[in-house]
Amino acid sequence: MTPDRRAGRRAGDDPSPPILMPVPESAPEPASLSQAPRCGARTRSGAPCRSPAVQGRARCRMHGGKGGGAPRGNRNAWKHGAYSRRTLEIARILRATSPAAIRRMLRDEGGEGDARDEGTDAGKMKNERTTPCNGKEGPKEGPSAAASPAPGRPSGAPGGMADFRRPAPLQPSFSFDAYRNFRAAYGSGPYPVWTTGETKPNRTGMIDRRQSMALLGSVLAFGGTAWAAPRAAARDAAGASGRGRAAGEPFSWDWLKGHAAALARSRPTPMPKPDPRALANNYDAANRINFRPDRTIFADDGYGVRLFPLLKAAPVPVEISIVERGRARLIEHSEDMFQVGPGEGPEPHVLPGVAGFRVMNRGGVGDWLAFLGASYFRSSGPLHQYGLSARGLAIDTGIDGKEEFPAFTHFWLERTRVGITIYALLQGPSVVGAWRFGTRMEADAVVQDVSSAIWLRRDVERLGIAPLTSMFWYDEGNPQARADWRPEIHDSDGLLIHNRAGERLWRPLGNPPRPTINAFADPQGGSAFGLLQRDRAFDHYQDDGVFYEKRPGLWVEPVGDWGPGAVMLYEIPTAKETDDNIVAFWTPDRPATAGTSFTFDYRLRWLGGEPAAPALARVVDRWTGTAGRPGLEPIANARRLVVDFEGAGLKGLDRRSGVTAAVSVDQGRLLSVDAYPVVGQPGRWRMIADVTRSNRTANLRATLEKDGRALSETVIHQFY
Prior knowledge:
Elements: E1 19-20, H1 31-34, H2 85-93, H3 99-109, H4 176-186, E2 193-194, H5 209-222, H6 228-240, E3 249-250, H7 253-264, H8 276-279, H9 283-288, E4 289-291, E5 305-308, E6 319-324, E7 327-330, E8 338-340, E9 356-360, E10 367-372, E11 376-379, E12 389-391, E13 393-395, E14 407-415, E15 420-427, E16 431-441, E17 445-456, E18 463-470, E19 472-474, E20 489-490, E21 494-498, E22 504-508, E23 516-522, E24 528-532, E25 553-559, E26 565-571, E27 582-588, E28 597-607, E29 618-626, E30 638-646, E31 659-665, E32 670-677, E33 684-692, E34 698-706, E35 709-710, E36 714-719
Parallel strand pairs: 6-14, 22-36
Antiparallel strand pairs: 1-2, 3-7, 4-8, 5-9, 6-7, 9-10, 10-11, 11-12, 12-18, 13-18, 14-15, 15-16, 16-17, 17-28, 18-27, 19-20, 21-22, 21-24, 23-26, 24-25, 25-28, 26-27, 29-30, 30-33, 31-34, 32-33, 34-35, 34-36
């Protein structure tokens, strides 16, 4: 499943948000302002009006110039020159253009107009005029992405943007001192200001849309490092004022949720084009790029963190911050974080920016948790072998041409007493969300307590909660798919579901001839589910390089009321082991429409065995073949399924104990069924069923029963 990151974009959508670029302090004043004669009429405060006069007139359009009336926006804000043009431009840039905010600003400054500025530091800023880069009026007010500004960042700063270390939070009533500090933090500019609302594409001025997206794409969309120079200036300025890197900015889980909710009301920014050099870093090249051990984050802890370079599989930069004592500081990315080791082939490209991170084992040898690419993450589990992955969210999986892969764009890492907590901001064309992963290692599992809050920008047909991604090529149950000398090749061999009705379902995975999706209804909500690797025998795989028998399972335990829904299983045909062709997730019955929000809490357990001691016998083996008695002519258009169950509850039972196999099939016809104990294998029973084939996919359900009581989990096998 190759992520098509363009999927889900609506026809006619503006490809990028408008960008306002204030004129740098070193640049000349725009000709339209510097060369025009000033009005000179007296305002209500007695100060001369400094607005440009209308061409051919001695007065501005507010004082008889007949230039077409007040500019777009609030007419009263311009009446009789109550505010200077400089004041309104500053207010526009800082996203405080509402009349109430401007009145508060003027009141806090002690008066109106420009007269109060004479002889003050603010008065020296008269000629530091700012204007949109196209020299035209800014957009009308509308829903803002900065409705809940980040602590320490001005209103309007994009959530996916790198944290530029603003020197002070923007308050509803800000001062010219705050504005001067704001300018100092950014350096000489230009610097971005997030805007929303209906605006025309920027065609003129300092930088056009194509250029701005080439420069800003990774910052605005996915937290990249294209603005390293302004950020360095911000860091220097912040350091001079005693704030910034050491102090950090206030951070909390509640702030992150509010920030995500505000971003959801803004227009999504498209993903930038990856750097071609990052795309050239293939698997072999990426393995030669090593994070310097001496730069390890939390190096004094057992949970040291190291960063991934940009590579072909993850070419888009992300931002990573460290949270300590309720304050977050951004990790400054630099090429000297990495070193290139020896190897063959083209020289790897070490680029500014990072693609993700991993959490190291004690001693720094090997890692046990990694976040890399889109919203993917995985753990090596208690057997120390990577296998399947998890994602933050799945959007329209299994729907032709619609699947969307939202991405974690900013991570915040915090050490805890028992492990590490990872906060993440997720963004995509259809969704914005906040995630929290409280992660710790236990004796038999890696455990993550997950909280998620989701806001939808668009209608989503199939919302996938707690999605799991794995690989299944073939096993001993479908030898017809075998094309390799190894007996079995898979990361997981089955989907296990525990529903609240007490039923235990085991669905062996398959490699279907065509993409197939199955839904397992969950009317009471909150079914636990997971992809497991039950077969732990090395002889069944014979691979001493990737150790499939050690691949972890992943178990999802819902917390709280999820409401009714269904567990979904999506299987895609594959002919190689490098394709992740299995997806499992939970989807709610509640419609996922634009403007709605969801919250889901759950626990992830990366396992080396079963999620709990099974009360019922479990499936341990499965085979398929031709139907009929061995040695006789096989039954035409029929297939045989053989399933072995094993459990303590089956010990001591024999054919006279009243054990039966309850079997049903939805397509085709059940020809025969039998169940009996396996000779010489205490506690192991075998079920054999022959089924006629049809032109449609058939699902067979089987369980062992005694006196109407289930002795085993229910196995669901699919005949293609």
